[in-house]
């Protein structure tokens, strides 16, 4: 083994020097460039240039290569590490964790490991996990849920086990015990700032029926302005310093609002929740801990483009929408489900009865869309894709299904209680319209349609 390693190393330097121009190091002096790269990393390059040429080229144009940070500096491990294995005389690890990245980037690693992103794998055990892993299946879980959320990565003889691996989830639980995955956003091996600041980077996970942030942003005024000036903004995306109001001004993207620095006092952060004042994910929204301070941080971002009176008025509208969703639909719907479970009309097994799917869609898909639409100034998502569907589901799916179940399975006592529950519900001003619509308003509607379309309201 030693003889083989010696022979391998003796031929690597010449081969690697010849390859420097090809792999993209920003220098015309290959020898000078390689003097910045450790002998261990030179050995890695000697093999992997032939095995994985594009990977080596990606690294070659990176800031890491310019700074002399090579393969070994990131993948080196100690013999006692859980994920360490021997590789041609070197002790390395396949997985580069936030602990490894934190050796050079301590601030960023601390922020990301303390953020909600790093805790994303904790969805295991949730209703989302039941759907993905049990109702749908483990293969889906590995290629769907876990590729965004992350999962615990087991190892055998230092190597990740197939099935759970490969995994690029943001909340990955690494073999060294750390939480998070820098490469979920900072793709190996170029670690391009331009790529990581593109909105599609966030849209990789933040899209779809239950959290369509990328779709919402794209057709908001922010997204439209960004696309109109994209060619100008893209010229700035690879800069180390990227401050709204200094380096660009045309429009914000995801990074701007949730992570970026501004001339109005917002500091760059890798904690994506540092500026969020509401939780918009659960069945009922609540303010986050220390929400006033977090909102003040987001307002610093807003202030780069908007006057204080505008920002305060927007948050007034946003808060009212979240409170409307909570009080009119989310809390009553949760009470319906609690009533059914308490009286054993539905059993403890999740998703084996239709009403459980209806309730899940009401808050997990439709309710989230309404709240996220409001938070990012997208009226169509707030209304038609959001609260309109919440209302339809609540009045014409959830309540009728509950009526049916109580009638089929409830005792006389339970039926009386359910009748009182609904009487109290519809006495609330939010819901009285369902039985007591204002007659004057009805006349206005009929007149509107008659005058506009020449017909009476149907």
Could you outline the blueprint of secondary structure elements for this entry?
Elements (H helix, E strand, L loop, with lengths): L1 H22 L6 H6 L3 H13 L1 H8 L2 H4 L4 H5 L8 E4 L2 E4 L4 H4 L4 H8 L13 H10 L1 H6 L1 H5 L5 E2 L2 E2 L32 H5 L1 H5 L9 H6 L2 H8 L1 H5 L8 E2 L9 H5 L2 E2 L28 H12 L5 H35 L11 H22 L3 H31 L2 H16 L11 H15 L5
Parallel strand pairs: 5-6
Antiparallel strand pairs: 1-2, 3-4
Brief summary of the model shown:
This protein has 458 residues and is mainly α. Helix content is 56%, strand content 3%.
How would you describe this protein?
Keywords: Heme, Iron, Metal-binding, Signal. The protein is mostly helical and about 450 residues long. It folds into four domains: about 1-75, no CATH class; about 100-185, no CATH class; about 195-305, no CATH class; about 310-425. Helices cover about 55% and strands about 5% of the residues. It contains 23 helices and six strands. It has helices at about 1-25, 30-35, 40-50, 55-60, 65, 70-75, 100, 105-115, 125-135, 140-145, 145-150, 195, 200-205, 215-220, 220-230, 230-235, 255-260, 290-300, 310-340, 355-375, 380-410, 410-425, 440-455, and strands spanning about 85, 90-95, 155, 160, 245, 260. The strands form three sheets. It has a two-stranded antiparallel ribbon. Helix 3 crosses helix 4 (about 55-60), helix 19 (about 310-340) runs antiparallel to helix 20 (about 355-375) and helix 19 (about 310-340) runs parallel beside helix 21 (about 380-410).
């Amino acid at each position: 083994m030693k003889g083989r390693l010696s022979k391998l190393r003796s031929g690597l330097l010449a081969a690697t020097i010849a390859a420097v121009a090809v792999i993209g190091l920003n220098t015309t002096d290959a020898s000078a460039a390689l003097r910045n790269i450790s002998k261990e990393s030179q050995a890695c390059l000697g093999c992997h240039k032939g095995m994985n040429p594009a990977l080596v080229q990606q690294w070659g144009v990176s800031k890491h290569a310019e700074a002399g940070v090579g393969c070994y500096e990131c993948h080196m491990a100690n013999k006692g590490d859980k994920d360490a294995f021997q590789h041609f005389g070197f002790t390395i690890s396949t997985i580069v964790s936030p602990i490894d990245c934190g050796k050079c980037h301590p601030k960023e690693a601390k922020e990301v490991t303390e953020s909600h992103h790093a805790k994303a794998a904790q969805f295991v055990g949730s209703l989302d996990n039941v759907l993905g892993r049990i109702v749908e299946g483990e293969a889906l879980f590995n290629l769907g849920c876990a590729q965004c959320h992350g999962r615990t990565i087991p190892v055998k003889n230092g190597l990740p086990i197939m099935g759970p691996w490969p995994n690029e989830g943001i909340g990955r639980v690494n073999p060294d015990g750390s939480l998070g995955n820098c490469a979920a956003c900072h793709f190996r091996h170029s670690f391009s700032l331009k790529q990581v600041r593109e909105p599609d980077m966030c849209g990789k996970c933040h899209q779809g029926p239950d959290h369509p942030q990328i779709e919402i942003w794209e057709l908001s005024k922010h997204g439209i302005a960004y696309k109109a000036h994209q060619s100008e903004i893209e010229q700035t995306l690879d800069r180390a310093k990227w401050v709204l109001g200094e380096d660009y001004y045309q429009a914000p993207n995801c990074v701007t609002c949730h992570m970026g620095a501004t001339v109005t006092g917002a500091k760059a952060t890798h904690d994506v929740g540092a500026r969020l004042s509401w939780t918009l994910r659960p069945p009922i929204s609540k303010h986050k801990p220390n929400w006033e301070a977090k909102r003040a941080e987001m307002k610093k971002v807003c202030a780069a483009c908007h006057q204080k009176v505008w920002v305060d008025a927007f948050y007034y509208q946003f808060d009212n929408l979240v409170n409307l969703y909570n009080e009119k639909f989310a809390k009553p719907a949760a009470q319906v489900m609690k009533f059914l479970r308490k009286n054993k009309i539905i059993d403890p097994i999740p998703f084996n009865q239709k009403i459980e799917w209806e309730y899940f869609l009401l808050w997990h898909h439709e309710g989230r869309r309404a709240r996220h639409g409001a938070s990012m100034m997208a009226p169509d998502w707030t209304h038609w894709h959001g609260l309109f569907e919440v209302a339809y589901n609540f009045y014409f799916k959830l309540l009728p299904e509950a009526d049916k179940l109580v009638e089929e399975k409830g005792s006389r006592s339970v039926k009386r209680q359910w009748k009182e529950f609904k009487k109290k519900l519809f006495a609330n001003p939010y819901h009285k319209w369902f039985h007591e619509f204002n007659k004057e308003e009805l006349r206005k509607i009929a007149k509107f349609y008659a005058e506009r379309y020449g017909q009476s309201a149907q």
